[in-house]
Design brief:
The complex is a heterodimer of chains A (394) and B (335). By secondary structure, chain A is of the alpha+beta class. Helices cover 21% and strands 30% of the residues of chain A. The structure holds adenosine-5'-triphosphate and magnesium ion (MG). Adenosine-5'-triphosphate (ATP) binds at residues 13, 16, 18, 36, 38-44, 82 of chain A.
Chain lengths: 394, 335
């Protein structure tokens, strides 16, 4: 069994804290993906698990054994490196068989295993090439073969598919999933590709600035992000955020007012909250029947349209006079929505939109923590005298 | 004349076809050189090359001629021994009046092979020791980060700044003393007249240079490769010898050959640490000087011995040449 547990792992370099008090519990056979912005500590966490760096504080436990002070070779792991790291003085066969030869397997066994690994990554017939005679993608496949050939308990893969073309990447993605099922191993994976993370993982660990933000199944991370960071990081294009505050009547900001019962979420009047809604959960109000539980309509003005083929991304602004500025994604005062490709919408139009209450999130602006992932409509027979139809956009 | 050549160049620049001019051979040559400077550079290169080869190879040639001259006629060498006479070949004298027998005689007069063996063994063992220890040191200095690294490195290099003579007296005293613990290994418990009396100080003296070379090389190897080796199952030491050292082969060859040659040719220390006899581990230079007797100096034998003595090093350098050249010039690993 190869559970991987990190207990209070902290890694400090002179002036940076690369990993900050990380606690993780990965079950045997699980496929866990680390995602996070560049420099957030994904590789460092992997290296700590691998034993290539010793944590400043904390414990690494693999298969019930405290391995914090064991060298990499005694941890039952293999790793695909972000920078590939093939041995330049060895040909493909020697690279793949390096670990087996060190462990003194006999020749036939080595040949059999190398051949099988090479088959998985489609490297047949390249056994005597040197690394500098291969393309980036081929090298990466050799690196993957080198990692799988030893049948370790835990695979660590740091962006293993980054250099592959789209087609090969999809192929390798399924191969890795098949391999995962077949070998019954634990896989810890790093990627910048959201599709990869969503499709392959049992759970996604979202990391920011060395701190674990959330570790949950992909759809949970998507639908119930624990905080503003996860909400903004998972999903592409990312969630719209509107900063506002709680009034007696619900959420209120310059542009967006949504009536609800603050007490239902233990919110007190005056609290600073941020409303979040994904582009696909905003609907034009003429199509509002698509939303299960629409909010009152908001008035906005269409700005730039980005037809993608299967959908149209429409940038809306609440202030008709506002200068459009697309450079930094969605700005305050803007709302990005995704509509059907055959929707009748043009630039510089006045439009009315509604949000799907069931998919609208509220976050505490100060702490960033999620408060709720859906906003129930005000009970019309309600208490507290809230006016049910307050504030449908100014 | 000056005006004439001036107009020449002008013509050369403006006209596509050069007009047929009345020029001396030197002017014509200059004009061609201006049009095609590559020829001149090539010519200069060959001139310099030949001059260089002459100055380095001529002594060898001369040494060879001295060796071939019978010992009586040494003063009469004019490019070839005065006794050299190709017509003798017709009479069945294959030596043509020279004396190749000197190359045999050196082994008869003295056990010259034993002197060569001594130097070879001492140089080989020293090289192995130096390479192993400086590999470890090079790994530490080149690949790890720790406090006080630069001062420590300077301290190591400081050893090589001392003139070797500075170490001689204390070492001589030390090696001439009976050291109790050594008695079971060495007959009289003293290192004098043993190979250790040379291997130990040579290792220390030539170590800093090797450490410096290997540090530079090892620091160039990407961290990822060492990490990969350790993940695949080596220890740090295993990664050093299986990945870092092979990838630094030019550097290791350079350090090794430099150490070997320096020790093989060493005289000063060996002279003072051993008695003259071949059985006392006296080195090659001692052997060569052994042909210098009290009443006669057998220059032809000394020359022959020098040539024979240099052969192993020459072979070594030719074999390792490719590595050494890239080691001395490159210093960096191409990814
Ligand atoms: N050896 C080191 N010395 C000092 N700082 C380091 C070292 N290694 C990493 N860091 C720092 O630690 C932080 C985390 O680095 P890490 O390589 O883990 O990021 P990452 O999440 O893998 O990023 P990427 O997605 O770009 O690969 C960075 O700020 C980096 O600068
Ligand atoms: Mg990384």
């Amino acid at each position: 069994m190869a559970d991987v547990t990190l207990e209070n792992i902290t890694k400090r370099y002179e002036d940076v804290t690369a990993v900050d008090d990380m606690n993780l519990d990965i079950k045997h056979g699980e496929f866990v993906t680390f995602v996070g912005p560049s420099g957030c500590g994904k590789s460092t966490t992997m290296e700590t698990i691998a034993g290539l760096t010793t944590p400043t504080e904390g414990k690494v436990i693999i298969g019930g054994r405290d391995v914090t002070n064991l060298p990499p070779k005694d941890r039952g792991i293999s790793m695909v490196f972000q920078n590939i790291a093939l041995f330049p003085h060895m040909d493909v066969y020697e690279n793949i068989s390096f670990g087996l030869r060190l462990r003194k397997y006999d020749k036939d066994e080595i040949d059999r295993r190398v051949e099988k690994a090479a088959e998985v990554v489609q490297l047949g017939g390249m056994m005597d090439r040197m690394p500098d005679e291969m393309s980036g993608g081929q090298r990466q496949r050799v690196a993957i073969a080198r990692a799988i050939v030893r049948n370790p308990d835990v695979f660590l893969m740091d962006e293993p598919l980054a250099n592959l073309d789209a087609k090969l990447r999809v192929h390798m993605r399924t191969e890795l999933q098949r391999l995962h099922k077949e070998l019954d191993t634990t896989i810890i994976y790093v990627t910048h590709d959201q599709a990869e993370a969503m499709t392959m993982s049992d759970r996604i660990a979202v990391i920011n600035a060395g701190e674990l933000q959330q570790i949950d199944p992909p759809l949970t991370c998507y639908n119930e992000p624990k905080n503003l960071f996860v909400a903004g990081f998972i999903g592409s294009p990312s969630m719209n955020f509107v900063e506002g505050r709680i009034t007696d009547n619900g959420f209120e900001s310059d542009d967006v007012n949504i009536p609800f019962e603050p007490a239902a979420y233990n919110l007190s009047t005056g609290a600073d909250v941020t409303l979040g809604v994904r582009p696909e959960d905003v609907y034009l109000s003429r199509n509002s029947r698509e939303a299960a539980d629409p909010t009152p309509p908001l008035t906005a003005y269409s700005d730039v349209l980005e037809p993608m083929g299967n959908e149209i991304f429409a940038y809306l602004k609440f202030d008709e006079e506002a200068e459009s500025d697309m450079e930094e994604g969605v700005m305050p005062g803007q709302l990005l929505i995704s509509v059907d490709p055959d929707t009748d919408i043009a630039e510089d139009q006045e439009v009315e939109v509604v949000l799907d209450r069931a998919k609208t999130h509220l976050f505490d602006t100060t702490t960033g923590n999620a408060i709720t992932h859906q906003i129930a409509p005000v009970d019309t027979a309600g208490a507290s005298g809230a006016d049910a139809e307050v504030g449908s956009g100014d | 004349m000056a005006a004439e050549s001036h107009s020449d160049t002008e013509y050369g620049r403006t006209g596509e076809e050069e007009p047929e001019l009345d020029r001396g051979p030197i002017e014509a040559w200059a004009a061609r050189s201006i049009k095609n400077p590559g020829r001149v550079y090539k010519g200069l290169f060959y001139t310099a090359m030949i001059a260089f080869l002459l100055t380095t190879l001529f002594p060898f040639y001369w040494l060879f001629m001295v060796a071939l001259t019978p010992s009586g006629s040494l003063q009469n060498i004019i490019l070839a021994p005065s006794t050299f006479d190709p017509t003798l070949l017709a009479q069945g004298d294959l030596t043509m009046g020279t004396n190749p027998g000197a190359f045999v005689e050196i082994f008869e007069r003295l056990p010259f092979h034993r002197y060569m063996f001594n130097s070879f063994v001492i140089a080989t063992i020293t090289t192995v020791i130096v390479l192993i220890i400086s590999s470890l040191a090079g790994y530490i200095f080149g690949r790890l980060r720790f406090r006080g690294k630069s001062p420590l490195m300077l301290l190591v290099l400081l050893v090589s700044f001392f003139p070797p003579a500075a170490f001689f007296l204390p070492l001589n005293r030390l090696f001439n003393r009976n050291i109790g613990v050594l008695e079971p290994i060495l007959s009289d418990g003293s290192l004098y007249n043993t190979p250790y009396a040379m291997i130990i100080p040579f290792s220390a003296l030539f170590m800093p240079l090797s450490i410096f070379i290997l540090t530079t090389f090892y620091s160039q190897i990407p961290d990822g490769l060492e990490d990969a080796a350790r993940i695949e199952g080596t220890t740090r030491l295993g990664a050093l010898f299986r990945v870092i050292v092979p990838l630094s082969a030019p550097g290791v060859a350079t350090a090794g050959v430099l150490t070997f040659i320096a020790v093989y040719n060493e005289y000063f220390f060996s002279r003072l640490m051993t008695d003259p006899g071949a059985d006392n581990w006296a080195p090659i230079v001692r052997g060569i000087l052994g042909y210098q007797g009290q009443y006669e100096t057998l220059f032809n034998l000394m020359a022959a011995a020098s040539i024979v003595g240099v052969l192993p090093v020459a072979i070594l350098v030719v074999v390792a040449q490719e590595k050494i050249v890239s080691g001395l010039t490159a210093g960096a690993l191409k990814e």
